[in-house]
Specification:
The complex is a heterodimer. Chain A is α+β, with helices and mostly antiparallel strands. Chain A has three helices and five strands, in the order E-E-E-E-H-H-H-E. In chain A, a hairpin with a 4-residue loop joins strand 2 and strand 3. Chain B is built from 15 helices and nine strands. The chains are: A alpha+beta, B alpha/beta. Chains A and B meet through strand 2 and strand 3 of A and loops of B.
């Protein structure tokens, strides 16, 4: 995974908004993760079209944070999701 | 009721009918006694009520769910409710067109059981020639774009072939592999002498599965479920009684697990009589083993009581005769000798005939 990768959710994973907790969940077979708002913001943008770089730019703008800090955070998160087979890189 | 008790998963056992006769089936031994099935309208209402109560995952299972001709309607409604829907099936009987239709309707995942890695031993455990067909159907699942979960129940006869099971799952491009050791309740308890592995078999398989998990990380999820009989402490059965899971039997009983209706003196209610929410929040069956009030010692003062919730009530009952006993698999249980004796017996290999899950053997179980 690098800045030019185009991540997308794995075929088995699906986002769902949960009314009860007002959080997004990532659902996959027999499991689910309750996402914090930042994680949800990242995964909602993993559409196989956007690059990691553009996701980082969007979120840096949205939160008013420095790009390098956001990039580190996003990359670490996406790599952990890829490790779990929940996000794949389309490139 | 607080979020401590929220059902995230509904296990919908649509029918107890099944063309297979697996010797470790999780359906109750006396399944023949519960022969009514809910109609489509009731299931659709139940799905809506479940979603409203907090359910986000739906497992369509049985018996064999494919024998219901209204699966299409249930999948469509589940999709409308944005539930993550998993079809848990033997793959028999299924036409490719029907599976393609499930895909269009929004089914999320297909889980197929494979009993072994070649036809003869697989068909022997299933009690039906089915292996070749299952492999074909697993191929369709992937061709149609579904994620595929492969589930193999492990026991004495196939545990030494875990390496081959993993290779098969790779060939089939499974997204998730469940290497699930049999748990000795229901039919597996009846067949325990034939099925319970030795500790050495188990440890060897665990190492192989662990290596595969590392090697396949990110590509295939490899799950290895230890049999309770070789664990030091009980598992958190169903994540605790009535905490996270709802199960509905073919006839409509709302249960905390697959076999809760085999416990004597615990009353369960039907979706045909009350709303799902009322039953979940306020029924004696669900209250029976929630929290810690019911716990005997050594559970009551144990540090692990909020980790394993006292283990499996059905296992406790079927081994000791008392549903509120400490799960005997716990090394602190006064009945733990029962488990040690079973493990000892497993070391002394002797072939015994298998008891298949059939209406005749079920009837015999009912009368005994």
């Amino acid at each position: 995974m690098d800045a030019t990768s185009r991540p997308r959710l794995a075929a088995k994973a699906r986002l769902r908004y949960d009314r009860k907790s007002s959080r997004y969940m990532l659902l996959y077979p027999e499991r689910g993760l309750v996402l914090n708002p930042t994680a949800a913001d990242v995964l909602q943008r993993c559409d196989g079209e956007r690059t990691v770089g553009s996701i980082v730019e969007e979120l840096a703008q949205k939160y008013g944070h420095e790009t390098p800090a956001v990039e580190r955070e996003v990359m670490t998160f996406l790599e952990s999701m890829a490790d779990r087979g929940l996000v794949q890189s389309a490139t | 009721m607080s979020e401590t008790y929220r059902p995230y998963t509904l296990v919908a056992e649509l029918t107890y009918k099944c063309p297979l006769r697996c010797v470790y089936c999780s359906n109750p031994l006396d399944y023949g006694r519960h022969d009514g099935e809910l109609d489509t309208e009731t299931w659709l209402r139940v799905l809506r009520e479940a979603e409203d109560l907090g359910v986000v995952q739906l497992n369509l299972t049985g018996g064999e769910p494919l024998v219901r001709d209204d699966l299409e309607a249930l999948i469509a409604e589940a999709r409308r409710l944005d539930l993550y829907t998993n079809l848990i099936t033997s793959g028999i009987p299924l036409r490719r067109e029907r599976l393609a239709r499930f895909r269009e309707l929004g089914l999320d995942n297909v889980q197929i059981s494979i009993q072994d890695t070649t036809a003869a031993p697989s068909d022997r455990i299933a009690g039906l020639r089915s292996y070749d067909r299952k492999i074909e159907i697993a191929g369709w699942v992937k061709e149609l774009g579904f994620p595929l979960t492969l589930n193999t129940v492990l026991h004495r006869e196939n545990l030494d072939r875990v390496e081959e099971v993993i290779a098969l799952a790779e060939r089939l491009h499974a997204d998730r592999l469940e290497l699930a050791n049999a748990q000795y309740v229901g039919w597996a308890l009846t067949n325990r002498t034939a099925l319970l592995p030795t500790r050495e078999q188990l440890e060897r398989a665990r190492v192989i599965a662990g290596r595969a998990r590392e090697r396949l990380r990110g590509r295939m999820e490899v799950l290895f479920v230890t049999p309770d009989y070789y664990a030091e402490f009980p598992k958190a059965c169903m994540d605790g009684w009535g905490r996270r899971f709802l199960l509905i039997s073919p006839g409509g009983l709302v249960l905390p697990c697959h076999a809760a209706h085999t416990l004597p003196g615990v009353e369960f209610e039907s979706v045909t009589e009350r709303s799902l929410a009322d039953i979940w929040r306020d029924s004696s069956g669900f209250a029976a083993f929630r929290g810690e009030e019911w716990m005997p010692e050594p559970c009551r003062s144990c540090d692990r009581r909020a980790v394993d919730f006292g283990g499996c009530r059905c296992q406790a009952y079927h081994l000791t005769g008392h549903a509120a006993a400490t799960d005997p698999v716990c090394r602190l249980s006064p009945d733990h000798g029962l488990i040690e004796a079973a493990r000892q017996a497993a070391e002394e290999a002797r072939p015994v005939p298998l008891v298949y899950r059939t209406s005749r053997t079920s009837e015999a179980a009912r009368q005994s």
